[in-house]
Amino acid sequence: MGDLRLTMDDSPLTDAILGQLQPELPEKLGLAVSGGGDSMALLALTADIARARGISLSVISVDHGLRSGVREELALVGDFCAAQQLPHHVESWQGWDGTGNLQGAARAARYHLINRWAEAQGIDTVLLGHTADDQAETLMMRLARGAGVDGLSAMAVRRRRGAVTYVRPLLDITRAELRDYLKARHIRWADDPSNEDTSFARVAMRRALAQLGPLGLSAKTLSGVAQNMRQARDALEAQTQTAAQDVASVHAGTVRLDLQPYEALPAEISRRLLVHAILWINGGAYPPRRGGVSAVQAAIKERRTVTLDGCQISFSGDHMWVYRELNAVRDTRSAPDDLWDGRWRVSGPGDTAQLHVAALGEAGLATRPDWRDLGLPRDALMSMPAVWRGQELVAAPVVGAPDGWKAEATGAQDSVFAALLSRQ
Fold first, then answer.
1. Coiled-coil ranges per the record (predicted)?
2. Where are the alpha helices (DSSP H) in 248-347?
3. pTM score, two decimals?
4. Domains present along the chain, CATH in parentheses
5. Binding-site residue set for ATP
6. Cα dist. 356→88, 330, 342, 360 in Å?
7. For 269-279, what is the mean pLDDT?
């Protein structure tokens, strides 16, 4: 296995990892390892760090069951962990039904399995082995799709999913640097044969980058560009949050924007504010497509009601309203106390066994002849959660008929509108 002790030659790699773990080192640390060169280098480096600093290190690998040879690769990880006296856990995924985006489904499953494992182990920080090459390849793929500032921004060094924070400490380190480290330490790694399949966009971009390197478009250079774009993104997000405090307000789970100051904002800031409103309301993980947002922006100029990603945008006097589209939740049901529509939690008194939560709808709103006094759009009120017993309305806590019930907007909290809520 070779000498794994830290040397001066290893210090830039070690410093990169420690820089993301300090100033307060975790007592427990998780590490996701596939057996490839990037994750094996991270494993070897982190094993030395953990041993020297008394950190409990645990390793997880995910077998997606998508190709042969994976078990041999994971056995390589297991052998290394056994030699280092590190616990190694393997999770298997067989959840793909053959439809949709395979890589996207596998990625979502991988994070789900790692999250579940980490939470069970009491681990709140997991390291991932993404490198400067991954940054560069991602930037090139998104550039080919005509991405904007957000799409071209660097991967986040830290990202929280549930109770687990994922950290990518090697984003400034190249794949070649890690291979040099592995070779010098005589540490084996596995090469995924799919990395030679140019039908995958990432592999094609990897080949292209090899040709562009001599022209100055190296992984390091493009990774630096991605970092610059992230700084630009962060600045735009800060300005968007400031704009939200000036032009937006939250009312019963809807967003109201004051039209005159909203339309005076720079186009990119008004676009971002609209996207944040939509994400806060629909709880989506990804923003709507730029083309869809552009169509909404055109409708705003014409004061025309429009829908996008399960949200409706309408106008009243000097205000624009963004709220849940009724058709998006018309058939959504949940038990009381469960999360309804991924955002609302409705709870109340007594025996709830025969009750369910569903949209207020036209029938429910008809029982509220004074709904105009609430100052909210009619369509917004119809999409609010209410408590039903069969076809009988029991309570509508959001619209002023609580009868001992309460409704709270929880779930995913978009950062901009979470900040607004904190000021109420």
1. 219-246
2. 259-263, 267-282, 290-301, 326-329
3. 0.79
4. 8-225 (3.40.50.620), 252-424 (no CATH)
5. 34-39
6. 44, 13, 15, 12
7. 94
